[in-house]
């Protein structure tokens, strides 16, 4: 038998366990035909503010109370729209992903649950991936059969005049327990071909707009192309195998990306949730 002197054992170096771990929770409930917010629980970098309601819709603004996400952060937002409610979520400013004190990636997970005859709009400001940042972002959405969803996500790859950070995203949408959409994307250093002609082709802003509406069961919007001059802004709107449409867009910068997605949104037919017709 051989005994090992622990004092002479090779040293194993690990990054220190650093970073913020925080979960913010939002719940919308129906009270006599008006959406209320019985749960509005901010945490860590997430400060939640009620905005003035629009009709029966409750509106919440997410305010960044500190710099986040940084390397090693574990951030999560959980939002639930209960039956018959209307909930609008936005943010006060862009989310800026930065290099942290550890080489570990940051994670930013969004979980949305929308019950029957409810509507949820996830419309925050964009994510900016600063040089040296490393972020894994995910959206997981569970919809009831009669729920409606409007979800916009935008990434700006690097601040003005700097290279992009690294970002990996995953979007999973389930409707009535069945998968409606599951996709992944990866941009920045270490992602194969991300800046080539088959992906971004030199653009530095990309985003998506997903609209789920039971009214699309019988009348889905047609495929449409949007864009400016060649090589500038481009977007395609396509119906999914379900009552939903997905627009994917690229642009040279965040301003033109937002304008393009706003144009796409205006072209998508709107309808009220079943409980409000």
TrEMBL record:
Keyword match Nucleus: no
InterPro entries in alphabetical order: UreD (IPR002669)
Localization terms from the record: Cytoplasm
Known partners and oligomeric status: UreD, UreF and UreG form a complex that acts as a GTP-hydrolysis-dependent molecular chaperone, activating the urease apoprotein by helping to assemble the nickel containing metallocenter of UreC. The UreE protein probably delivers the nickel.
Alphabetized Pfam families for the sequence: UreD
Keywords, sorted A to Z: Chaperone, Cytoplasm, Nickel insertion
HAMAP family: UreD
UniProt record similarity statement: Belongs to the UreD family.
Stated role: Required for maturation of urease via the functional incorporation of the urease nickel metallocenter.
The name this protein goes by in its record: Urease accessory protein UreD
Organism field: Streptomyces celluloflavus
């Amino acid at each position: 038998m051989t005994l090992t002197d622990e004092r002479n054992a090779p040293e194993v170096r690990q990054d220190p366990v650093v970073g913020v771990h925080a979960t913010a929770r939002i719940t919308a409930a129906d009270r006599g035909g008006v959406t209320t917010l019985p749960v509005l629980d901010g945490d860590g970098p997430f400060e939640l503010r009620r905005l003035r309601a629009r009709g029966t819709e409750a509106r919440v603004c997410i305010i960044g109370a500190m710099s986040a996400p940084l390397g090693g952060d574990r951030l999560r937002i959980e939002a639930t729209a209960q039956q018959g409610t209307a909930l609008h979520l936005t943010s006060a400013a862009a989310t800026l992903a930065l290099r942290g004190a550890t080489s570990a990636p940051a994670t930013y997970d969004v979980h949305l649950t929308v019950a029957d005859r409810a509507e949820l709009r996830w419309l925050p400001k964009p994510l900016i991936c600063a040089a040296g940042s490393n972020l894994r972002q995910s959206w997981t959405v569970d919809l009831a059969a009669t729920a409606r969803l409007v979800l916009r996500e935008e990434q700006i790859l690097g601040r003005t005049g700097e290279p992009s950070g690294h970002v990996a995203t995953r979007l999973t949408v389930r409707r009535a327990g069945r998968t409606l959409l599951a996709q992944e994307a990866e941009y920045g250093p270490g992602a194969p071909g991300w800046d080539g002609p088959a992906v971004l082709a030199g653009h530095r802003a990309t985003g998506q707009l997903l609209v789920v509406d039971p009214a699309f069961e019988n009348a889905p919007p047609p495929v449409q192309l949007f864009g400016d001059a060649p090589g500038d802004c481009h977007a395609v709107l396509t119906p999914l195998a379900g009552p939903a449409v997905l627009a994917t867009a690229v642009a040279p910068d965040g301003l033109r990306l937002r304008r393009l997605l706003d144009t796409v949104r205006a072209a998508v037919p709107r309808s009220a949730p079943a409980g409000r017709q």
